[in-house]
Amino acid sequence: MAKTKTDKIRVVEEFYSLQGEGFNMGKPAWFVRLGGCEVGCSFCDEMRAWDASRYPEVEIDEIVNHALNCPAKAVVVTGGEPMLYDLTNLCNKFHEHNIQCFLETSGSQPITGDWDWICLSPKYGAAPNNETLAKANELKIIIGCKEDFEWAEKNSKLVSDKCILFLQPDWNRCNVIIKDIVDYILINPKWRLSLQTHKYIQIL
Predict the structure, then answer these.
(1) Are the beta carbons of 74 and 28 closer than 8 angstroms?
(2) Phi first, then psi: what are they for 86, rounded to 5°?
(3) Which among 48, 80, 86, 185 could disulfide-bond with 37, CB atoms 3.0 to 4.6 Å apart, if both were Cys?
């Protein structure tokens, strides 16, 4: 999928909820899930978003209007991989209405748009680009096995000193790996624990 500046993007779903994980856990926001992903992680819990062609193109103005109808002044753009699109226009229009823009990305594509917060969650086989590493406000590494700690440390050396570091268990292996994550953080306190609280409390 070519990344071109556009006033239409393919949307899987939009909804109002709480951010369930990472630094902004518990914060209410309007969520916009975009279609398309070239990474294809085995543990992905949104595989339905991989094929962008399954979803309609939605006008950016329509998305902004949806966000304006919810009480929160924050939007989380996620996927799929949102940076398959040029989201400069989308961010600008949100900011015109004083709405904060939060991005969830694997870092596989260059950043477009002016973001108030960037959560980088790099995946094997699609190493994050240098620009995203430099701009990331938080680094969130999914841990499914002990070997993933090496991947976490590798990426932690590439982000800025101000980037907040999180380890998050693969939901499907949480009961198996959570003790190892806790033990690892106790020994390496630069890391914090992230949990998918929205799944525990059964909300979107």
Answers:
(1) yes
(2) -85, 110
(3) 80
